[in-house]
Amino acid sequence: MHSINKVLREGRMPSSRVYVRRFSMCNCLTIPLPDTYTAHGMTIDYFVRKTEPGEKVDAFKVPKRIDTFLWSPFNEAYNAARRIDGVRYTRAWKGPREVKDFGKKTLPRWSVAGFANELRRLEKRVREVWGDVLRVLVLYDNRNAVQRVREKMEAYDEVAVETLDWPLVRVVCDAPRCRSGPWHHYPLSVVRGVLEKIETLEEALS
Q1: What is this structure's pTM?
Q2: What's domain 4-197's architecture?
Q3: DSSP one-letter string for 54-115
């Protein structure tokens, strides 16, 4: 296995617009993973409307080729969203057009039907951009989130499982840090376990 510690220490992701092994829309969870570009804060709407393979769009780089696409409902379920120039952004957006004041102009969360439709848009666009790559659904461990967040996460996770026929990776965190710190900032041991599950799925297809 590649050294996650080395990736963390160097603090950089692959930036090639030609080929990256994995492209992730799982926010901070996958930033430490080797050979993985994480589009932190990228919404489904942004991915569908703005990304083009081999191009840099705002702060994001989209490679022409990947082997694995990783996606989690976390960003859409957890973060407040608003619309800018017709595109949906969430508070997690870290690019140069980050909007500071989301409080007064937030969009309502997706309904079950609306979210299912977004997922179908996502799957279609992934195929258009990268063809029949491995697509993996990643579900956060939300047991230590406050009740309203946990309920929203569970609802979105359920819709994703029902709508996307993708292999599933569940994050499991029983470490003390998951109970005492931000519930969604998992320790390195948990991130390493996520990588092992992803690599097992990849090896099954190799």
Answers
A1: 0.91
A2: 3-Layer(aba) Sandwich (3.40)
A3: TEEETTEEE-SB-SEEEE-SHHHHHS-EEEETTEEEETT--STT--S--TTSPPPPPPHHHH
